[in-house]
Amino acid sequence: MKLFLSHKIYRTLTLSRLLNALGAYIYNLVFVIYAASLPRPSLAIFLANMVPMIPIVFTFWIGVQADKSQNKGQKMMIIAFVQALLFTMVALIISQQTYLVFSIICLLNVVSDCLSDYGAGLRMPILQEHVAENDLMEAYSFSQFISYICQIAGQFLGIWLLTISNQSFALVAGVNAGFFLLSALVLYWYRQDLTHKPVTVVDKKVPLLQRFKELYQTMEQIFQQAEQTSFASLLLSVLVLNALGGAVGSIYNLYLLKVSLFGLSYGQALVLVQLLFLVGAILGSLTPHDYFAKQSLSVLLVLNSGLFALIGLFNLLDFPPVLALFLLAFVAYLLGKSNPKLDALLMANLPTEVLAQSNNFLSLLFTLSLPLGTFLFSVLAVYQLWLAWLVFACLSAVAFAMVWKNRKIST
Predict the structure, then answer these.
(1) I need a labelling partner for 387 at 20 to 30 A (CA). Which of 226, 264, 289, 348 fits?
(2) Transmembrane stretches, by residue range (predicted)?
């Protein structure tokens, strides 16, 4: 908070990101509810689960383009204006609840998510230029905290808007467009301050595989210095756990269609699950000096995989839903400690000209299994919920064995 109040450029970027994220989170949950209102809702929710996975395929290429871009602050402003236009289009067509309109909205969502990824890559060199290295951990922790608050506020606001407007999805999309417009205006007002180091454009084209190899070696060196463990083993463990972490939300989207949670409506139950996850993540972000924060990434992965196994087992055996939800909140609590530490580590050790692509490369590696996990468990949940939870528990146990072995070789 101190950095936010005292640092004008960080405050500008954070406010812009806050408005952008608030609008997006208002719409994301409502989009799932919109899918549930279509004929054959299980199929529509399955497609809604898969749409956010598509931009992952392009994330590395987007990072390369962000690193090569000149006038990054100006381009961030343009992106926010374009996103406002996209969701204005969504507001104009979403009242027609057909699969044709749903497909168009899915396409616009993919375009908007790719633009958000590009904007995030543009933001990083500006932060690196103006925020001192000693303040990076605080900067990323507070940014993560703001993101979680936006998720809570945005989803509650989205449900509230649907309630008072008699399920007007167009109103929610219009409000989302308004937040993107405000985000662009914040950047416009302070556009002269959004400077960064000059961008050096190299005409020589580097083959994609060679670029991957070079960035992998850079990541390996950084992780070996910070974690003192095998990067390949650690990476494999993260891939499996990210597949499970991405899938658990998809399963709950379908699980709550069939299982009543404390007598709540489907939309209210979705909000409650998201709220518990976010509260756990916020508490993790706000307690950077407790016992768990002092543990290595490998130890945190051991804990997460064990918790995932228990979540799958509890739901498979029809334990009270509150038990699995409590464990899910604890998983989020642990994630709230590891993400800012990782971001600050990259920002402090990477050169500006590869900052966005390196970050996106790491994100690509860590999220590579997300589409597979989401697809697999969405299909299983559509077919049989109990089978989805069974496979989830078994794969979590396998992941636990993998990360435990990785922990044993740590020094």
Answers:
(1) 264
(2) 18-37, 43-64, 76-94, 100-120, 145-163, 169-190, 231-255, 261-284, 296-316, 322-340, 361-380, 386-404
